[in-house]
Write a structure and sequence with these properties.
heterodimer; A: alpha+beta; Ubiquitin-like (UB roll); DNA polymerase, domain 1; five-stranded mixed beta sheet; about 15% strand; B: alpha+beta; Uridine Diphospho-n-acetylenolpyruvylglucosamine Reductase, domain 3; Enolase-like, domain 1; five-stranded antiparallel beta sheet; 14 strands; about 30% helix; binds FE2/S2 (inorganic) cluster
Amino acid sequence: MQRVGQNERVPVTITLNGRQVTALATSRTLLSDFLRQAVGATGTHVGCEHGVCGCCTVMIDGVAGRSCLALAVQVDGCRIDTVEGLAGEGGALNALQRAFQANHALQCGFCTPGILMSFTDLLARNPSPTEQEVREVLGGHICRCTGYAGIVAAVLQAAAEMRGEAA
Amino acid sequence: MKPRPFDYVRADSVAEVLELLARHGEGARILAGGQSLMAMMNLRLVQPEVLIDISRIAELGEIRIVGDMLEVGATVTQARLEAWPKLEEVAPFIARAIPWVGHFQTRNRGTVCGSIAHADPSSELPLSLALLEGEVVLRSCRGERCLKAPEFQTGMLTTAREADEMITAVRFPIGVGRKGAAFREVARRHGDFAIVGIGAVVAGDGNIRLGVGGVSDRPRTITLPRADESDLQDRIERFAWELGGYDDIHASARYRRDILRRLAPRVIQEALQCNG
Ligand code: FES
Ligand code: FES
């Protein structure tokens, strides 16, 4: 049994994008705040804080989930992947990110980190999603700028490229 | 918003959880997937003194077949059940309904038992439990008991769980819906809270069981004799009147009844058509 009292501050260790990091958290620190404020990884955004908007979506032990609905103490020892881990050497964008750029799938970019992480999960599980499947996953996000057509096109294009088909 | 301060305890066994619940009663809440509870805590609609994290208790993470029931443990996520290879064969109705539960991202962490514990009147899993006549396994230091769906969910977000009890599993009868099963719902956006959800299964005797969420304070069911298909619409209309419905910011009671009157015949048709 592990107990964290309400006035305590405890070290929490996560593997963030492949690197181990440790920072302090209280029992009520949300994973989203832990990432942004304790670790300084501000790529993950926070909108509604009750699971609706999707912009805080990260991968927790390999599956996409809301970081505003998880506690830092709850994910101690877990692997967390965020938007900061997507680009390769020297900041080279990956296929999904490039497709977002090419299809005008973002404007202000506030919603984008969460959307990218959801589709990182989807494409790992299902390399050939249908448009309907893409739309269903996108249903878990709200974008107030672009409309969704560009995002759907970007995901389908990235999937094709990742399968080795000419875009 | 952020949750109020609370003591967090990660339990390693069911025995530990039961002991904590016996000690803290109403002040304690159980955290599994957190997809309903954490949202309510962030909104400060729920303010536990002690939060008991059960998500790492291995014995609660099983999907298994016990006699003629499918048993789903307290930490099994909706996504895991959705991806379980035998789901279509064992519980075809759940295979239809579960893709409608929340979003892809919330099903990844949200649990089947958690959704049933939360007892939202319009959600899909409580409706599945009621329609299939499943049961909820509750355990406390005093022992274990099993409640049938209508005994368990007693009203809007209200259940018969005592403060010192935890849900260790839910059970669904195997095979119900093999002769036909269908589910549909109306929501503002796929994955949002349903305004009305409707499920139908063709029972062994050929009769139709219809289940409705979002029109009453809890899921409601009715059995419709298949023989008189002629007065099916009348029976559905009467059922809608009996349920009444409720007004909230999403829809009026009248609109909810209207969805039921119009959508139920289609769901029933769909269930009958997949009758193989
Ligand atoms: S901030 Fe987490 S879903 Fe909106
Ligand atoms: S790009 Fe601005 S909210 Fe989506």
